[in-house]
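Annotators were shown the component list below and the corresponding predicted structure, then asked to write short factual statements about the assembly.
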Amino acid sequence: MQSLKRLNHYFIRYWRLFVPGLLFTMISAVFAIAVPIIVRQAIDSLPRFARLYRQFEATSLQHAVYWDLFWTLFVFGLIVIALSLANGAFTFLMRQTVIVASRHIEFDMRNALYEHLQKLSANFYHRTKTGDVITRATSDIEQVRRYIGPAIMYSTRALVIVVAAITAMLIISPILTFYALMPMTILAVSMFVIAQLVHKRSEALQRQYAQLTSRVQETLAGIRLVKAYAREETETRTFEKESRSYKARMLGLARVEAAWRPVFVIVVGLSEIMVVWVGGRLVSEGIITIGNIAEYIIYVALMTWPVAAFGLVISMMQRASASAERIYEVLDQQPDISDNFRTDPSIQKIGGRVTFENVSFQYEANLPYALHDISFDVPAGESLAIVGKTGAGKSTLIDLIGRLTEPTRGRVLIDGRDVQKMPLSVLREGIGYVPQDVFLFSDSIGNNISFGTTGASEEDVRQAAFEAELLETVLEFPEGLQSGVGERGVSLSGGQAQRTTIARALIRQPRIFIMDDALSSVDTKTESRILEHLHKRQGHHTMVMISHRISSIKGADQIIVLDAGRIVERGTHASLMAQNGLYAQMYQRQLLEERLEALQ
Amino acid sequence: MSEKKGLDRRLLRRIIGYLIPYKHWVILAFFLVLLVSFLGPLRPWLIRLAIDHHIVPGELDGLFLLIAALFGAIVLEGALSYGNAYFTQWIGQQAIYDVRVRVFRHVQKQSLSFFDRTPIGRLITRTTSDVEALADVLSAGIIVIMGDMFKLVFIAAFMFSLNWILALVTLCVMPFMLLVTLWFKRNVRGQYRETRKQVARLNSFMQEHVTGMLIVQLFGREKEEMKRFEKINDEHQTAQLRTVFYHSLFWPAVDIIASTAVGFVLWTGGVSAIGGALTVGVLIAFIQYCRQFFEPIRNLSEQFNTLQGAMAGAERIFDVLDNDQSLPDVDAQDPPQRFEGDIVFDNVWFAYKDLDDGTPDWVLQGVSFTIKRGQNAAIVGATGSGKTTIISLLMRFYDIQKGQILLDGKDIRSLRLKYLRWRIGLVLQDVFLFSGSIYRNISLGNPDISLDQVKQAANTIGADQFIEQFPKQYHHDVRERGVSLSHGQRQLLSFVRVLAHDPDILVLDEATSSIDTETEHIVQHALEQVLQGRTSLVVAHRLSTIRHSDTILVLHKGLLREQGTHDELVAAGGLYQTLYELQYREQERAMEVSA
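Structure shown to annotators:
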């Protein structure tokens, strides 16, 4: 429950809603508790009137007694209706304050969480599963909200009703109250026990559900193998087994859940029996009236739900506490890459010279180095190409330029200054990055292109799309640049999506343009046209590019060949060819491939 | 509208059809629910007897009997409602189990072209969560709705039997109750839809931005994205608050209407009590009925909502079930026999899909070749030349459009699918491992393959050494954290798998990825063991494999361009020469270096 304390400042922030809200809760409870008193008085008035009615039999007064009763009861009836109207009005106000406040807090928490997520570095996202983060931002926040809103509202209301009802009952008869409430104590306890069991069993059910899902997932993913070995029957049998145990868990949950109603029925019923039995004796002894019995029956009915709520609220709080803990786990995470005391705010923009000084990098302390002692210097406006096998460390190297990660040893310099001294926003503003994995937001193509700029004109978007060889294709779509990407829009081919990411980087007019194997899904003809466009920008930006296709990097001012995190060859295309090493071999293979492709 | 209703009814009938095997149980459940619905309203009636006949006249002697009856009624109601709640779930879960297994069997039976087209995620949803939604109808839905209706009838019956005037007075607030419920339902249903939409928007924004967070950061868009998030979050909150508003109005309104009925009953009932037309007990009973009466009405409106949700899921499930794309199979029960191994592709044309203009997008164009029994054949070609397709066609994962594939002179379409695939062993490039033990991954659940056979196969392949290093050896779980298998080990396992199944024909898609020299030797040895004495068809990536082949098929762009032995083809100096340079020369150099 410790983590729930950290939520207290939210109550303070919304005290303007909580204070009246709790007040409304209490007022509504008082009105609710007044109804049975009126009912009792109405019923108790009956025998009195009946006696008078008989006394004045056959006199003119009898008529008057009848009308007196008529109007008395009419007033009682009206009071009952008026009380419940008042009760209803305050219940309405109660929900409109407390529940609304809980929604405000939910809103604030979610904003805070998202804002924090934006500050966390690549490191955090490598470690944490996407689904896990999303669960915290959705269902965990919902659990906490239930504690803030409903749980507090129910328990306050329950407390007031129970205290008021018990007081009213005690005044009438302590003995009857004792008997009537005896079964009630079972209710709170059994509610808590059932809620706990239900929670535990639902979790077990969820686990089995996940198991069942992964079973299906596995069979379908391995469907070729299943079919090749004609194992369909075996797979079905395994699936049946998992389904059976899912069913068993489901029924296990049903066994507990089925207890809700009987517990209510029996507890409320027992209370009623006590009221009638013990109350009946008391009536005959003249200690209480028949109206008191009706009153008690209503009290019991009124108290049932509040008493049950106590048990539920405790269970809700337990769940909220676990959820709050998970949320704070993220919020307590310190962003490890951010501006700090070393930041030099006088740096307003970057020029474009990129220098690595003996840079080494390892992802975690016990893992082997992903980069060893990398040094190079690219003057502003020139270009650097990096080639090498998958896993050679190319992407890792590139991440260091934009300071997505930090070197373990050595320094990364821009314009001769350590990137750690640059304000992050300045550094990143100067970089246009095209990642290896194409990632677009589900928005229009135009908005995806202008993603990284503010106030880009339609003309700018078109120009960037043109340079990325995307414009012609996009204009063929019915909605042009306004066409949506993703589920509800057009489905872009791999190449089109990749070209969109190129346009997205180009529109920023970056000082440093980085392409991480960003032409892999583009055919050779389009590729050469894009390279032509980029060529025209030469001198305006420093270019760093990774490619598997040597034809696309031949013209670079510097080429480095990476192997297992080390630079094994470096030079220009001509000098590397002359060396006749790894680079030359790769190039020859690609020439052969092209020749083969050209064969009909 | 009426057409849609008709459709819904047909859908509902079809769903209920799944309950037919359990119809006796369903009938029993109806009786149970009938009894429970009777016992609830019985209580106020018994209390009335106690008040009127014993408490008011002061004759406490007979009271005990009534108390006992009351006690019996509660205990019985408690027990029965427990049994009923559990029992309805039980019936529903039995039926759901049947549906689930049926969907699974159906999906599994589909041809591979179905799987190529349908995302696995969607199929998983069909067998899991959509079936789950059906459970709401099958287990609780129908029986609970019936129970609520019975309850209404019983309460009304009890009220009328006690005093028909008061019964009418109570019922006169009914229309208001209905009106409020309908108003609430209409407003809240649209609002729920809106809320769900907002929740989905919020989730997909989160999903997208957590996945693409590095892009957001690199492009320095934190401020703008925060603004967008706040807007979505705000709209979500607005939708939620509007729902809160309807709820805040509805629940008090229900309570007010019920209390109004109490007020009326008190007034009219009290007035008629004076003439002796009504007793105090009846009045108290009516006060209780007023509250009991509105519960089923509220429940019913909620039940119909769930029902509608379930229908959507059911529709999706039936879509899958009604769309059968499995390959036509032969029913013949001829026992599996050994294949001699003569393979003939006779002018085979095949396309996975059609081009946009409707003509087939040919992957193989009139491919013909013969592999005689016992021969080892290798297929070589550039990426996309159709190598893997030949393997898939021999396994009959797809049916060809033109031509014939013959096995021992028989068209493979005339063989029972199961038997065809039983006698052909397939090793794929990506070794797929199921979660579970090594033993299970090798035997694939075939009870005819004993642990000893697996051990023997592992021994022959040379995989026994690394398997026996695991603490649980053959029972080692391949997905256990920490000790995952290396690429080479996975390949070896797939060889053990195929050897343990002892096929007549071997079909192999060699892995391209390089492995260390030591494992390379073991794999080499393993391959020789597996190929020995079997007709085989290998998509070759290893130099040694093509060198040892009896015949090499050279594919290029869907055409069989050359066929012959390595020496013949090299001497001919055609396409094979170039491919050899490209794909195998480097291996040759490497071998020279290591030698």
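Statements collected:
1. Chain A has a mean pLDDT of 84.
2. Chain A touches chain B through 137 residues (CB under 8 Å).
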